[in-house]
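Appendix B. Extra example for self-study. Work through it before the problem class; the solution is given directly after the inputs so you can check yourself.
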Amino acid sequence: MATLIPNYALAEIIGEKIEIDAGTVDELIREGIARYGEPFKKAIAHAAIAVNGRTISYLKGKKTKLQAADTVWLILPASGG
Amino acid sequence: MALCTGYMGKSYDIDLSTGEIKILDISQHVDLYLGGKGVGTRLLYDNTPPGMDPYDDRMPLIFSTGPLTGTSAPQSNRFVVTTKSPLTGAVANSTCGGDFARQLKRAGVDVVMVRGKAKAPVYIEITDEGGASIKDATRLWGKGAVETQELLPKGFGKAVIGPAGENRVRFACIVSQERVAGRTGCGAVMGAKNLKAIIADGKMKIVAEDKDAFEELRKSMVKYLKSHPMTGKILPDLGTANIVNTAAGRNILPVNNFQRGTDHRAPRISGEALAAKHLKRRVGCVNCPIVCGRGIDLHGKRTKGPEYETLSIMGSNLGNFNLPDIFEWNYLCDDLGMDTISTGGVLGFATELTERGMLKSNLSFDSHEAVAGLLHDIAHRNGLGDDLAEGVKRMSEKYGGHDFAIHVKGLELPGYDPRGCYGQGLEYATTNRGGCHVQGATMFLEATGPISIDPLSVKSKAGLVILQQNLSAAICSSVFCMFSSYAMLPRQVFGLDPQGMSYKAVTQVLLNSGPILELVLKAKAPLSMLWFEKFLTYVMGKKVSLGDYTELGERVFNLERIYNIREGFTSRDDTLPPRILNESTFKGVSGGVPLHEMLPKYYRIRGWDKYGIPRDQTLDRLGITT
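Solution. Structure tokens for the complete assembly:
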């Protein structure tokens, strides 16, 4: 069971910490869309995804495997200041 | 010697001990050091003997502008304060927006060097018609920075200190409007001189040498900044607070004195939360189209909301995820005149000391009732506040806890845990003023920005950090806002899908760019490519190339290094806190930042020997005399 931390806008709708049973990031995304619909789809479309602090571009992309106690964040694709 | 356009041609050397006001000649420095930090550092080096105590009456406190200050170039109305840091013993400098810089130039002045110590509290007034004068500030002493500015004459640009500066809190800052010259304790040196404020007013103007080209560039630059994703969307919409969620997601958000790099409660203090629930207005510096400042209401008063650094270091770093608390503390720090980063750093350290039974206090990572009272105690040096006012390094010498004392060269680390951005770790270790993020901001290219050059790799990081540090030193000598550099990345980069192949390809190329970076650093590009050197060219009426500009930054950085070496710093000081070097925050990664893998290469590319000392040929090439 991985933990998903949504971005602020999505968290306002679905809560700030969600448990999702998924074997990969791709499965997590599918399950999230199935469970929460359009708001989740919209959040994913504009987010970078990080697993345990590593963006998935440095892992196996959406095929990155998830284990229990893994934390997945949806974050802004670019920040700065 | 007559100075070119961009300079007002007058600078002051004011001795508060004698009351003597002399004209200071900076003309011999501007060709090599331009202005701002560059000229400030040169004046500091030349006007102090080795080993002078920062609180020695003779210690200069230098307020300097650059050739663009006072023009309508966006993001250019800033001043730099330079002195020796009472917190670190190294070179101290800090840049600041607000209204003082422009008014100083309009008063016809480029640089003010203040020496000596007044017998009673004073402030310095500078106008175009009346010149400089020293005035009684007895009635202002003890007042907060907000009230002090209200009580001083209207219409003037002001740079003031609060009680923390008066009481020599080692991380006291200087405040102008709602902006601060925050880091390295320049406010404490100001207080030690019994100098409460420096104010300026005038009507003089700078007309660019090539005013048509200047105006055309200004218009296109404003348009570009407004249309750029970083400066036209992310910063105006969310302020620097936009970084909170990204930092938490990338495991670089300091939590509980850097014990962790993330916390699921981070979105509660994010830029999105601030914008949705508290933002009343956007606030910007003079002539800046970005307007990154957050206007909020606090107890019915309009005030400034916190920036990312405050949200992280006085928020998550203290285990606090309650925005109103941080608003309150942010306001208190600004009014008392204390750097929020060092304040949060020392509070985080004291909290961990307390939780380990090494210090008796009411601090806790789980409840925060004690913080507001302690902020007053720090500023007035009451009780435990007197110890906290000394900063993390000195606290650790008294109470222990060296392994988790989070500072570099005595300067508390800002809100980017370098265990999730190794290049930023190298930058912290080597930056001349200590643990600071705005003397290169390598984390933007590793962890927060639109492209991420593998943050957990050391590849190419030495060259990347040097490039960033040199550019930053040039920007701070011009003087521009560092945020202008965020628009250097083409907007197309912001459109890349972070999960896509193009993104991966770009970051891989950059990760392997080390040899090219080294060539770039050695080459002196004769072209004008960025707006920095173009603005300088049009204002000053003499060609400034990109190569000239980055070499200026390299020169200033090396002069700072030479100053630090003269003051007793060695390569042993180019390090990171033991917690950051040894303790992992990433699953599957052992240890912290592998600094030893980057530092020798960094020295070599810099043209320094293995002890981190600039070689003679490096100094000769840069024209630095010692």
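Self-check: Residues 151 and 421 of chain B are 45 Å apart (CA to CA). If your reasoning did not lead you there, revisit section 3.
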